[in-house]
């Protein structure tokens, strides 16, 4: 077997660690993308009953963005298995309690139909900020592209770039702003 084929075979069967930045991303759309890497669907050897998925590290889960007014209207159900133990928690309340839970629940929901989703979820590592243990960061070899770019705040744009931006309207010299 040639060296090229050997490397190709090794990369196909190896477990890779990916990192995904969830800042300003919709957790439910991101979950569909993360699911592909957790289950190993992106690999040519994929089979639903094979252990061919990869590890995914999700950072900045405290900075996720839900669409519209989902922070106020989306509810999460939990039951303690005791009589009267049903509870519904609003998304913003759940996010204040644990900023990693919404992303975790979104990925778990995206894995619906996967017979091994409890085992697959063990390869998902969610962190509320960028503080990831060094042992995990040493394993990372790929970054999953974000669904949409993170906007830059206006106060963080350099002054030179603002001055070079083309002006749509030139006010006269004697114009007074009120």
From TrEMBL:
Signal peptide boundaries: none
Source organism superkingdom: Eukaryota
Gene Ontology molecular function: mRNA binding; structural constituent of ribosome
Gene3D superfamilies: Ribosomal protein L13
Keywords attached to this entry: Ribonucleoprotein, Ribosomal protein
Any GO BP annotation: negative regulation of translation
Pfam family membership, one: Ribosomal_L13
GO cellular component: mitochondrial large ribosomal subunit
Family statement: Belongs to the universal ribosomal protein uL13 family.
HAMAP family: Ribosomal_uL13
PANTHER family from the UniProt entry: LARGE RIBOSOMAL SUBUNIT PROTEIN UL13M, RIBOSOMAL PROTEIN L13
Name of this chain's protein: 39S ribosomal protein L13, mitochondrial
Species: Vespula germanica
């Amino acid at each position: 077997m040639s060296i090229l084929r050997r490397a190709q075979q090794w990369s196909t069967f190896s477990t890779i660690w990916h990192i995904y930045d969830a800042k300003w991303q919709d957790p439910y759309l991101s979950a569909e993308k993360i699911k592909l890497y957790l289950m190993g669907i992106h690999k040519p050897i994929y089979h639903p009953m094979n252990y061919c998925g990869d590890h995914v590290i999700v950072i900045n889960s405290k900075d996720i963005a839900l669409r519209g007014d989902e922070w106020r209207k989306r509810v999460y159900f939990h039951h303690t298995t005791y009589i009267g133990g049903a509870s519904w928690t609003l998304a913003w309340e759940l996010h204040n309690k644990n900023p990693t839970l919404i992303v975790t629940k979104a990925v778990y929901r995206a894995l619906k139909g996967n017979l091994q989703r409890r085992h697959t979820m063990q390869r998902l590592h969610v962190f509320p900020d960028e503080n990831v243990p060094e042992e995990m960061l040493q394993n990372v070899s790929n970054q999953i592209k974000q669904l949409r770019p993170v906007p830059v705040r206006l106060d963080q744009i350099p002054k030179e770039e603002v001055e070079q931006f083309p002006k749509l309207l030139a006010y006269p010299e004697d114009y007074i702003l009120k």
